[in-house]
């Protein structure tokens, strides 16, 4: 019986490995460079492409963060100014960003250094993790904008993987005052050129 279970597990593992390889090839065929980002694998990249659709429907990275639930929510009280994680937003993309953050924290990455700087500045682990996820949201947004720009420049007409039946197509989430972007904005020239092209 144990031998049969081991054989079954081996078959499942081989099927999973093959499916992962096929997914990686499909994602690479879209032309995206999301998998170049530390902590994003084939399934995370595929989920981003499917859920996000056309990245330029988000006017800026703050709107993108609001949509994916990484934008901070003001939870200040009296003289104490603080923010908390949003429980709203697209939970599947939030999970992709959470996995990305967790992978970065396990390795000597810029994400790990950023988290450590936040902790050294007096943030709790939860607050530092919130800030890291927000920063990673900006990085993902910038990469997807870059991918869309390259796709337009090469004549493919937009970000691959977009579905006209996407449940999120056309939504522009509201961004409140506590949901402002962190420093290092995405290149505004890219957005201008993309808007004039479309």
From TrEMBL:
Residues 2-29 form a coiled coil. Pfam families: Transposase_20. Keywords: Coiled coil. One of its GO terms (biological process) is DNA transposition. Residues 32-114 form the Transposase IS116/IS110/IS902 C-terminal domain. The keyword Nucleus does not apply. One of its GO terms (molecular function) is DNA binding. This is Transposase IS116/IS110/IS902 C-terminal domain-containing protein. The keyword Protease does not apply. Residues 153-198 are annotated as: Disordered. Residues 161-180 have a biased composition (Polar residues). It comes from the Bacteria.
